[in-house]
Structures are given as structure tokens and as C-alpha cells.
Amino acid sequence: MSKLVESEEWFQVAEAFEASGLTQKEFSAQRGLRLSTLQSWVYRRRRQRSRKAPAVRLLPVEVASTTQASAAMLEIVLPGGARVRFAPGTDVGYVARLLTALGR
């Protein structure tokens, strides 16, 4: 088995652990795994995921006043010209994920 396939399988085991709600000790005992091996792969998976998290960049903002009905909406204009409008109070995490996806 190649190391890449083995790594992917262990990442799946680490993911299953995180979704299980069990302690590492309980999970490893149920699966017949060495606790230290599970701990190592959970750590590696978390480290890999944290590296993939996009860096937060602050960009200049221009505030334009308007008296139109659209004043109740916020708008972000991306460098490519795409416009994203959303209501105040929209989940900031959702907007950030949307902008990240559009920026790809």
C-alpha cells in the first residue's frame, strides 16, 4: 500500500473519531487501535486542516451613502467585478466562505 493511500485511510479514521463523540481512549479500544497511533493521526489531520484555512486579509472599504431602498443591503464588489449583496446581520462566516469560493 502506498504511503498516500495509507495517509488517506488514517485521515478517514481520524475523521471518524472526531465525529464519534468518544474519547480517544474509548475510540481506539473499540477499533483495536493503539492509542498513540490514533493520537498521532488526529494531530496530523488537524494540523493539515489548519494549514488549508485561508488567511484573513483586510481590504480597503469604501462607504457610499444612498437614499435608495437598497440602502438596507450591504454590497461587496470583488476585484473581478462580481457583486455580492447581503442583508445586515447575515452570518459573517457564511459571507467569508462565499467570497473565498468566488475568489477561486
Task: Give a quick precis of the structure.
This protein is mainly alpha-helical and 104 residues long.
**Rounded radius of gyration (Å):** 22 Å
Q: How many alpha or pi helices?
A: 4
Can you summarize the main beta sheet? 2 strands, antiparallel
So what's the oligomer here?
A: single chain
Alpha-carbon distance between the termini? Answer: 33 Å
Q: Uncertain spans, ≥5 residues at pLDDT below 50? A: none
Percentage of residues in DSSP E strands: 5-15%
- N to C succession of SSEs: HHHEEH
Helix vs. strand class: mainly alpha
What proportion of the residues is helical, as a percent range?
40-55%
Largest sheet, order of strands side by side? Answer: 1-2
Let me know the average pLDDT.
80
Strand elements, count: 2
Explain the overall architecture:
By secondary structure, this protein is mainly alpha-helical. The protein is built from four helices and two strands; from the N terminus they run αααββα. Strands 1-2 form a two-stranded antiparallel ribbon. Helix 1 packs across helix 3. It is elongated, with a radius of gyration of 22 Å.
Features:
two-stranded antiparallel ribbon; mainly alpha; 104 residues; elongated; 4 helices
